[in-house]
Amino acid sequence: MSSSFTQMGLQLELFNAINDLKYDDPTPIQEQAIPALLNGKNVLGQAQTGTGKTAAFALPMLQKIDPEARCIQALVLAPTRELAIQVANATRQLAGDSPVRILPIYGGQSYSIQKKQLHRGVDVVVGTPGRMLDLIQQGVLDLSKVNYVVLDEADIMLEMGFLEDVETILSEVPEERQIALFSATMPDRIRKLAERFMGEYKLVSVDQKQMTTDLTDQIYFEVNQADKFEALCRIIDIEPEFYGLVFLRTKVETEQVGNRLTDRGYHAEFLHGDISQAQRERILNKFRKKRINILAATDVAARGLHIPAVSHVINYDVPYDSEAYVHRIGRTGRAGRSGDAILFVAPREKRMLSQIERATRKKIERMELPSTEDINDKRINRFKQRITDTLA
């Protein structure tokens, strides 16, 4: 653990949580934003997704929460439900053993479920502006005790036409509150929003460097959700030396895909957060020794595990944000060896693909899936080569 995190004045339980999550040195945005936010300053941050900004605003927020207060004390606004879910999950991980209650709210989920959870009591609400405004107007979302507000991906929120909703929500929050506003770009509208609602603020920014290595070829295939498994099998079949990670969003999907691969005769295993430590080490050991060549995994395998450089990283589902994408594809294109990072993109995931390209500052090339004929030709050529090698 870097002494930089040690010197930030974080509570022990938060320090232990980031230690457990294998955070090493703070990123530049964390180094600048965390001390300012802990000191009660408003912060306007220019940072792409993937720079560690979630921890930059979540750690100070968690430190300021009093779980005994039994009221909503912090609010995080995000432009999409995918990002709201991602931020809520990341914040829960950062909270460690703290009893802080975090609730994501977004369109598409039942109102009754969200109302029940709000009635039970939560400390932090993470959500999209539209659903937040609906619940405020219904009188079930009380922001009168909120003292910490985060606007995440503010430029996207404005692009999506949420400005009026955001202004209405902020008007429901007490004037004595702290605001952290993060945006990948800094147009005049963002600065005007900051000046109007934040007053004095500290500006923090990081250099926008290319976040992904040139040793990794990044491509995507447009595939309907129901066809993704067959697409995965085609990729594996056409690559003679496939040795890769397949990332999925949920534990259930991970088990399903891992088991289906095994049923098809592939040397595969699955890995997720509910796997015991002993079983986890057994699976990883088999993967390192290449006794299996395919590992289906949730994001638990993207950080903190000693996995060698793989030939392929396949994103079976588009990750909820670019930070997760960068962590995932960081498993390939390492130690001077090239690798392939492949995305399966369902039609409804196209917007998330655009967000990843914008954040990583890299165009991801669309490709056509190999046909059955392509795969058969490859198999015949490999068979012929084996005969030639044996005769030689």
Total count of helical runs of at least 4 residues: 16
Biggest sheet: strand arrangement: 3-4-2-5-6-1-7
Structural class: alpha/beta
Largest sheet: 7 strands, parallel
Helix content: 40-55%
Unreliable runs: none
Q: What string gives the helices and strands in order?
A: HHHEHEHEHEHEHHEHEEHEHEHEEHEHEH
Q: What would you report as the Rg, rounded to the nearest angstrom?
A: 23 Å
The pLDDT mean sits at: 85
Beta-strand fraction estimate: 15-25%
Large-scale geometry: elongated
Span between termini: 54 Å
Q: How many E strands?
A: 14
Tell me what you see in this structure.
The chain is of the alpha/beta class and 392 residues long. The protein has helices spanning 3-6, 12-20, 28-38, 53-64, 81-95, 111-120, 129-137, 154-159, 163-171, 188-198, 228-238, 251-263, 277-288, 322-329, 350-360, 372-391; strands at residues 43-46, 74-77, 102-105, 124-127, 148-151, 178-183, 202-205, 216-222, 244-247, 268-271, 294-297, 312-315, 339-345, 365-366. It has a seven-stranded parallel β-sheet with strand order 3-4-2-5-6-1-7, sandwiched between helices. The chain has a seven-stranded parallel β-sheet with strand order 10-11-9-12-13-8-14, sandwiched between helices. Helix 3 runs parallel beside helix 4 (53-64), helix 4 crosses helix 5 and helix 7 (129-137) crosses helix 9. The chain is elongated.
